Structures are given as structure tokens and as C-alpha cells.
Amino acid sequence: MTAIVATERLTKRYGTTVTALDDVSIEIRRGEFAAIVGRSGSGKSTLMNILGCLDAPTSGSVAIGGRQVDYTDRSALVHLRRTAIGFVFQQFNLIPNLTAEENVEYPLLFNYRERGERTERARALLERVGLPERASHYPAELSGGEQQRVAIARALVHDPLIVLADEPTGNLDSKTSTDILELLRELNRDRQTTFVVVTHDRECESLFDRTIGMVDGRVVA
Amino acid sequence: MMAKWLEYARIAGRQALRKRARLLLTALGIAIGVAAVVGIVSLGEGIRCQSVAMIEEQSDLALIEVTAGLHGGTIVPITASKTASIASLPHVQASAPVVKAAFATRQQTYLGVVGGRWDEMVAVFDPVLHQGRGYRAGSADAVIGRDLADQLLRYEGIRPGDTFGVLVREYGESGLPEDREGDLAAVGILQERDDALDTAVLMDAATVTALAGERDTYDAVYVRVDSPENVFSVVEGIEGLGLNANGAFEEIESVNNLMDVVILVLSSFTGISLVVGALMIVNTMIISVFERMREIGITMAVGASQSDVVGLILLECLYIGIIGGLIGDLMGIGFAAIINTVGRSLILDRLGANFAGFAEADITLITPQILAAGMLIAVLLSLLAGIYPALKAARLNPVEAIRQM
């Protein structure tokens, strides 16, 4: 299988003293369901932000979909975020004054899709994540698990190459966490979407194709 | 592209409506400034309008006196071809080219003489004869203005029908005055008309030049315009010929110039409240951006560019501007009505009886242009006020913004 994301000697330093990422070279293959595990401060989130084109590395390079990412080209980064990347956050991060359906279709607004197509896709995804009857609810009216399902639908709505989920179960109880991870796994199988999931609970490791361990900014086997 | 901005407008509208009280109060800040400007400008426009109406009532606006012009230091004389051009200008109803001269009676009463064709004089001035008849071409007939006729009767006993001697003062080669003599027949007296004709002597041009000396140009052309509204276009035509135009319209011009300055000064003072309103918007939007930092970060993470973020924030400001402009225009109309009822008696007391014309009419005037300007000011100021907060939002680092709790 071809690599959908590849990093080459990726390093991120803050100032002269803090090294968040140290010489990280990894490959995520198309359709893979990969976990990144490590303690807090091990550089997982930094890696995710760089892969997600939200942050730039100090040195090293990243290729997404076989193409080098130019971190100095702001509009190219915006284009990648718009088309190639989906985010799921620990805090769910839905827009509070938009309904579940509007939250799901929100990324399509910046992709200039017609309203009809947006609504259709959002409805289909809400149904896929098991919340068809919650479409017109606002985030405050949803439980944590439901909010995260809406967020997952939002991350998939523009058919990204890769979904980056940064501790998606960090704010959920263990039962709901398992449900969410299983949902992600199902979506990965059904849609062949590549997932990189940051997690620190090793209980669900069996769900993943591969586990990448991180310690102090380095990748460990 | 248009559809995209309509969608942005919808999203920004939802954001703006989140804190309705805040939206309304911020809009009110700009509205008060707009209302003050609208009210003051409407007062200025009202006074301008009343003053012009008074001038129109008291003077003959449709009459223009054309005199020789000055172009680059040389005099542009009124030649026969120029008078023909004037007569053929659009909206010119009648014109009377004249020569002017100064005569004196034997007892040294000054006579301002205007020489032209009687039929043209009639067409331009529409004179009404108090006594006698008009003058004939080629004769020594003179038609005398009412005030001058009274004076001649009282001091010199000259009556209509009388012939009287006049002196034309000229200077010989030695520099001494050499008076030439002639006789005029007082054939008619004009009715009093409260203008310059009351003290003038009207007669045939050829008779004037025979006494005062031949010349190949005219001293003036009196022009009757078909209606007062067209005066300025005729004046433009006359000035285009290189000639000067004088008349009551100049008073209107000077009133307009004066009121332009007054309105500008007053509205810039009241405009200070607009600055305060704009600063309120800056403040509100900065707070709003700060509160929504995380949302802005997420919006960028899901694919919004910096310009998308700027656009979304500016659209919110646009709503504040539109609401502020609407409320401001409404308040301005109310403000103008208050000035009209409360302020009128106060202003009339100060101005005295000469301005009685103001008593019946409105002293404020709201025009569609004033309201449109109020709206435009509100919208432009709001957008201007939004630039800094919008740029602040667009420059947020998404990673740090999303991390905000």
C-alpha cells in the first residue's frame, strides 16, 4: 500500500530549550487505522498539528498524498485543510450556535459546495454516526458522546484523505470511549478513510492496525 | 462566488444575533451619531431652502444682466454676434442688448440712460406705463422711471409730453469738459416696479449713440430666462461665451456656498459622536473575537482562510452598520421634527420680523440623500471599525486558539 502521509526527520523546537519533536520519520499507509500513544508531553499533539497543517516544523519534511507540504505557502496549507484533512478534537469543538447538521456541513461552506449537496452529505453522515434525529439540535442539547459523533461526521463531510483525531475519547467515560473508537474503526473499514488517532489508553489497542509509540518527542517501536 | 458570500452572510448573521442586546447597544452607539448628523444637516438644508425661497420671492430671478467679460487680461466685448449667440441659448425667452450713457439735465439732475429697442425692452422687462406711451425708433422719445419722473417734476417741472434739454459731458483735447446738448421728449412714465428701472431713462439706442458717441459694441444685454430653475444653465452658457452674468441668482449662489460651509462645520462637530460610536464597535468586536477565539481556530482548522475569517467578522460589522444606520435615520427624522416644533419659535425670536417667511414653513428638511448619506456613513464606519478586530481574528494561531478553554 502507498503512504498517504510520510514524515522525514521531522523536528519541532520551541525556543532553544524545548524539543517537542525529535527526528520523527513515520509513514501512514492509505486506509490505515493507526494509533499514536504516549504520555502527555511526548509530542503527540505537536505531530498531529504539523500533519494537520496547523503548525509548521522547525526542520524535516512532510508529504501528504505523495506531495511535499510547503509550510511557507499559506494558501496551500488552507487548501490542504479544506480538502485533505479532517480533525476530531478532544473537546469536540462544535460551534455552539449552529445545529448538529449545520456543524457537520460547516467545512463544506469553505469548499464552496451548493447548499443542497451540503445538506445531503451532512444528513447522510449524521445518519451514519447514529444521530439522524439529532440534526436540528444544538451542541448544548447533546451528550458528550453525541457531540463527538457530530464532530466525527464533520471531520468526514468533505471526504478527506486522512482524519486526525487528537485524543477523541479523552473527555468521555470508558463505555462511550469504546463506542466512539469502534465507530471510527467501522468508518475506516467502510469508507477506506485513513485515521490517525492519538490515545493514551492502551485498552483498545487491539482495534488498531498499528500503534506508534512516542516518548520525549521520539518515535519508539 | 455570490452564493458563497450569501452563505457567509447567513453564518455571520447567526453570530451577530447571538448577543442581541449587545448588537442593539453597539448599533445604537453609531445610530446616535448618525441621528445627530441627519438632524443637523436637515436643519441646514431647511434653512438653505427657506432662504432661497425668500430670495426667489423678493427678486426677479429669471433676469440676467450680461456685461463684458475679462479673459486673460483682455476685455471680451459684447458684439452683435455675441448677442445673437445669447438670444439663441436654450431657455432664453427674450434678450435686449443695450447701450448705456450718463446724461444730465440743464439743472444737473443725473440721468442714467439705457438705449435699446422698445419691443425688446417690453419682452424682457414687461414694463407697465403709468402715463403716456413707449418710445419710437429713431426718435428723441424717452420713457422715464417712476422715481426719476417724480424728481424731475418736483424740481424741474418736467411733465409727460414736455421736451427738455440734456447735456452730455465730454472732454476735449485740452482736457476741459465740453458739454454737448440735445433735446429729449418725455413720452411716457413707467409704473413703480422696485428695481433699477425706477431711476432710469429708456430710449432708442440710435438716439443715445448719436448724443453720446458711436460705438460698435453693446454695454449690456438683459436676458429673460423662461423659468428660475433654468437660470444656472443659461448663466453657464453666457460664461461659456466669455461674458459676465449678474443677477439675483448670485444671491442664491452665495447662500448655497454659505450653507455648504455651515453644514460642513456643524456636521463635523456632531460627527465626533460617530467616532465614539465607531470606537464602541471596535471594542465590541475585539471582545467578541476574544470570546470566540476557539471557534475561530476551529473554523480555520476546517478550511477557512484568513480572508474568509476577515470576511465573516466584517459581515457582522456590516449588520451593526445597517441596523445602526436604520435606527439612526429614524432617530434623525425624529430629531428633525423636534427641532422643527421646539426650535422654530426660538429661532424666529432671534431672527426677527424679516424672517417671517420661516414662520409657516418647516425649518428642517429631510431629503432621501440625507438619509442615504446617514446609512452610508453608518455602514462605512462600522466596516472601518471592524478592520482591526477582523485582522486580529485572522492572525490568530489556530493551534493556540483551539487550545483556549
From TrEMBL, chain A:
Gene Ontology molecular function, alphabetical: ATP binding
Keywords (A to Z) from UniProt: ATP-binding, Nucleotide-binding, Transport
Pfam family, one: ABC_tran
InterPro entries: AAA+_ATPase, ABC_transporter-like_ATP-bd, ABC_transporter-like_CS, ABC_transpr_LolD-like, MacB-like_ATP-bd, P-loop_NTPase
Gene3D superfamilies (UniProt xref): P-loop containing nucleotide triphosphate hydrolases
Transmembrane segments: none
Listed SUPFAM superfamilies: P-loop containing nucleoside triphosphate hydrolases
Superkingdom of the source species: Archaea
Residue ranges annotated for the ABC transporter domain, each copy included: 5-220
Name of the molecule in the record: ABC transporter ATP-binding protein
Taxonomic source organism: Methanoculleus frigidifontis
